[in-house]
Specification:
It is built from one helix and 31 strands. Helix content is 1%, strand content 37%. By secondary structure, it is mainly β. Among the domains are: 188 residues, Immunoglobulin-like (Sandwich), CATH 2.60.40.10; 76 residues, no CATH class. The strands form ten sheets. It has a five-stranded antiparallel beta sheet with strand order 6-4-3-7-8, with no helix packed on it. 14% of the residues are buried.
Length: 497
């Protein structure tokens, strides 16, 4: 990734040809911008120049370095040939053996870590230095200027940006290559390639693998790179015990702590100093949930008997016996409502004992002995609505008779599931009368430990908020604890049988 780039508007001013020896150096100018296209101004930069023969990767014939500072316009100006030579001398170059290429490298931080580089062929140069050795030197000529303009990504010839290199003669001798001085046939472009995908972070996963994160957001995790453990070398001889070091200075410790009863504490140290804290009293905590209801207290003494209520109205007179008499062998009783009752036989013939009669059954007939007659019990009126007709066959053990509501009955096997209900109460509370208690003693729903009450008697159980009233016909059972929800809201129960 390019952190900076150069706008090389460098000018190579060749010395004018005179009969005197030409100086072995030429001028260079460049404008330095950062990746946001902002000028790097008033900042020290490092530069290295290399002259190559034959091509851009040719033989190095000369190399030198410079350290200079950009001006308020981000420009540097220097003379190639006047820097610190690293290889050869510029005066030893035989310019007749060209072509030659100038490689420029820049460290925008002023050191020698050159992160920007570019190579440009030195085209159409009159080579004043070569003319120095010419047999027939000519008249002084114009300076040749090379101008390097940036090409921004997505514009012009270079898709990913680069430089447009223009050449021409400085006809007006102002050391600037004006538009009318550019030789268009010599214009060249040095284009940047597409930015590569680089690694921006590496993570050791702790299992022998590493994860690389790239500049495009993708990642790659290696396989386990842990190699086999090498063999353990032989144990070396034990070293001699070192000398015992001098005893350190005793530290300062706390010898006592005093509670000042105002939220502060005073610490007394072993060196006689002390320290008193600020008020350490924290805010009052939230009120905890309501505790379990305690056992019922002893019954109070009976109150005084209230005053006697008013006397009620007299009831209707009952029926009484007004007279009785014997007629024949029967006793007749006359009632106050005018009704006369025959109580039946009261005595037998004088001197003769009353005959003994017995009942006997033969099938559906019941007979009274000694002339009492016979009564049939086999559906005498042929009306099944006023009697129960038993099933024709006997039922199985455990079956019960069930009516269909129209006078018929049949055998039925009762359901094996128990009818009844379950109600949860807080731990150690009493169950309603007739219910069985099941100890649980844990928090299974709310914040309060619970037990269970159960009954096989068919009924309904409904939980209500603590303090509410049950519907009419329902029995209230006090719980006063959060036993069925996940909050701290206490509930009571209503039961309907």
């Amino acid at each position: 990734m390019r952190l900076f780039f150069l706008v090389l508007m460098f000018n190579i001013f060749w010395a004018a040809i005179t009969s005197a020896q030409a100086p072995h150096k030429f001028s260079y100018q460049a404008v330095i911008r950062n990746q946001g296209n902002s000028l790097v101004v008033n900042r020290q930069v490092g530069l290295r120049f290399t002259i190559l023969r034959g091509n851009a990767n040719g033989v190095i014939v000369y190399c030198e370095t410079h350290t200079t500072t950009t001006n308020q316009n981000g420009m540097v100006s220097l003379e190639i040939g006047a820097g610190t030579a690293l290889f050869n001398s510029i005066s030893n170059i035989n310019w007749a053996q060209g072509p030659y290429f100038l490689k420029t490298e820049t460290d925008p931080n002023g050191g020698v870590s050159y992160t920007i580089s570019g190579t440009t062929q030195m085209l159409s140069v009159p080579y004043a230095l070569y003319a120095e050795t010419s047999a027939n030197p000519g008249n002084p000529g114009y300076n040749t200027i090379i101008k390097n303009d940036p090409v921004y990504p997505g514009t012009g010839t270079c898709r990913f940006g680069g430089f447009k290199i223009s050449f021409g003669l400085d006809l007006n001798r102002n050391n600037i290559l004006d538009g009318n001085e550019i030789e268009n046939s010599l214009t060249r472009f040095v284009c940047n390639g597409k930015d590569g995908k680089g690694i921006i972070s590496t993570v050791d996963n702790g299992n022998g693998t590493f994860t690389f994160t790239y500049t495009d957001g993708t990642t790659f995790t290696t396989s386990n790179l842990t190699g086999p453990m090498g063999a353990i070398g032989p144990q070396g001889p034990a070293g001699q015990p070192g000398a015992t070091g001098p005893q350190g200075i005793a530290g300062i410790g706390i010898v006592s702590t005093v509670n000042n009863s105002n939220g502060t504490y005073t610490f007394n140290y072993s060196d006689g100093s002390s320290f008193t804290t600020g008020n350490l009293t924290g805010p009052a905590g939230a009120i905890g949930p309501q505790g379990l209801q305690g056992p019922a207290g002893p019954a109070g003494t009976n109150g005084a008997i209230g005053p006697q209520g008013p006397a009620g109205t007299n009831g209707t007179n009952g029926v009484s016996i007004t007279n009785s008499y014997v007629q024949g062998d029967s006793l007749f009783v006359v009632l106050s409502n005018g009704q006369t009752l025959n109580t039946g036989y009261v005595r037998g013939p004088m001197g003769t004992a009353a005959p003994t009669q017995t009942l006997s059954q033969n099938g559906s007939n019941i007979t009274l002995s000694n002339g009492g007659g016979t009564v049939s019990i086999n559906d005498a009126d042929s009306n099944p609505t006023n009697e129960l007709e038993l099933p024709a066959t006997a039922g199985s053990a455990g079956q019960v008779l069930t009516t269909n509501g129209s006078g018929s009955v049949y055998w039925n096997t009762p359901s094996s599931s128990a009818a009844g209900a379950v109600m949860y109460i807080y731990n150690d509370q009493q169950c309603p009368a007739g219910w069985t208690k099941q100890e649980i003693n844990v928090q299974i729903w709310g914040v309060t430990p619970v037990d269970a009450c159960w009954t096989t008697q068919p009924c309904l159980v409904m939980y209500i908020y603590n303090g509410q009233t049950c519907p009419s016909g329902w029995i209230f059972h006090d719980i006063s604890a959060a036993v069925i929800n996940e909050s701290t809201i206490p509930v009571d129960a209503c039961i309907k049988y």
